[in-house]
Amino acid sequence: YRLLRRSAMLPRGLRAMRALRGLGRCPLGRAFAEDAAKATATATATQASPVNPKPSGLPMTTPGAPGAVRPKVVIVGTGWASFRVLADIDTKKNDVTVISPRNHLLFTPMLASSALGTVNQRSICQPVRPLTAKKNATYYESSVVGVDKEKQLVTCKTLGGQEYNLPYDKLVVGIGFQPNDFNIPGVKENALFMKETADATRFKDHVLEKLEEAAYCHALDNDLTLSDEEKWKIQELLTFIVVGGGPTGVELAGELTDFLYNEVANLYKNLKPYIRVHMFTYDLLNTFDEKLQDYAITHLRKKQNVQVHLGAFVQKVEPNVVHVKLGESAMSIRYGTLVWCAGIKPHPFVSDFGFAMNDKGSQILVDPFLKVKGERTSMPSEIVQPLKITGCHRPPKWPINKVSIWLKPWAWTRARPSPSSFTTRALWHTWVDSQQSWPTFLVSVVSLASWHSSLGVSPIGFYNFPCGIASCW
Known about the structure:
Radius of gyration: 29 Å
Mean pLDDT: 76
Shape: elongated
C-alpha cells in the first residue's frame, strides 16, 4: 500500500510496473508470483494437450514475433463498429482484411443535410483506404454473400458480379442494416431511400430535376399561359412525400422544407405557391420522450409547413401515386418525389447466415463480450492466449482473490469508476453488484482485457480501471 502511494505521481505504466516489482518483496507478493507461475505452466500444458493440439505446420510462436503466423481477421463492413475495430486492432499480431462495397465511413446523422447542400458530402465521409494503408491491412471493395463456417471461408462478390473466397480465423461482422420496405408493392421500384451516400446524391439530382421540369412544363405546348391542367401538373411535380417518422424522416423533412421555402423560393419565385411537403407515419420519434414528440410535431406543422399525417399506413406505391390508409379511411396523393425512411432490416447475408437472432429476426444475439451466441469461438475466460500484464504472460485464471483483498482499500480511496468508464452496460452492472464482492468485478475486467489482448486491441481508452495493474496493457 505504501509503495503504491509513493509511486502515485508516476505515469500509469511505470506506476504499475513498480507496484508489480514491489509485490515480490512481501509474502503476499511471493505467493502471487508462485500461483501465477503455476497457472502459466498449466496454460502451457493445456495448449500442448490433445484437447488443444498444436495446429499442424504452424509454429508455436508469440503473435507479432518474427516468423509468427498471424491469425487472419476479416472485418465485414465499414460502419461505425467495423471502422473502430480497424482503427484499434494491432496489425502486427493480426493479418487484417476489410470487405465492404462502401469504401468509406459515413456519418449518417448528417446524410439528410448533405443531400440538400447544407453540408458538403465529403465532410461526412471518411475514406477507408488511407487507414488500411496506414495499418498495413487489405481492403476489398466487394459484398459478402456467404460464409462457410466449416472451412472458414467468406464468399465475396464484386460490383461487377464476380465471386471469390477469402479465408479467415476470426470474423468481425459490422455491416449494419438496409432499408425495410415491408414488402409493400411498388416501394423498391418507385421510392427513393436515405441510407447511403449514393442515396443522398440520387435524391439531390432527383429534386433538381423535378424543379427544372416544373419550371418549363407549361411551355411545352408553345403557350406560356398557365392552364388549370398545367397548374395541377406543376403541383404534382412539387409534391414531396416523406414516409417514416423516425430521426431520418424528421431530419429530412426539416432540411427539405428549409431548402424549398428559402433557396427554391428565391430562385424559382413563380413555383413557391405549388410546393407541398407531406409526411406519412404511424407515430413520430417513438423512441424519444413524449414532450419531444409533441414539440417535433408542432414544429414541423407550424414552422416547417409540413403536413404530418399520423396513424398512416402506406398500402401501395405507383410511379406517381401513393395509396395510404388513415384509420378507417383511405386516400391517394399524386407526387413528384417520395422518400422512404420507414424502417430498417438486416442484410440478406445476416438473415441467411444462421446467426442466433432475436424474436423479430432483426438483431444478432451476442454475449457481453460481443461474441455471437452459439458460434464456435474461444471465450475470454478460457486459456487460449496468455494474458499480458507489464511484460508478464499470465492466463486469465490468476489468484485474483489475494490481489483484490490487498488492493481494495487503495482502489476505493483512489477513484470510483463511472458508467462511461466501461465498454458495456453489463460491466457497469457487474461493478455495482460487486461493491461487496470485489473479486467478481476483477474477474470480469480481466476477462474483457484478455479478449482485447487476443485481438491485439489495447483496452486503454475503452475503460479506466482504478488499479494501475489492470490498466497498463
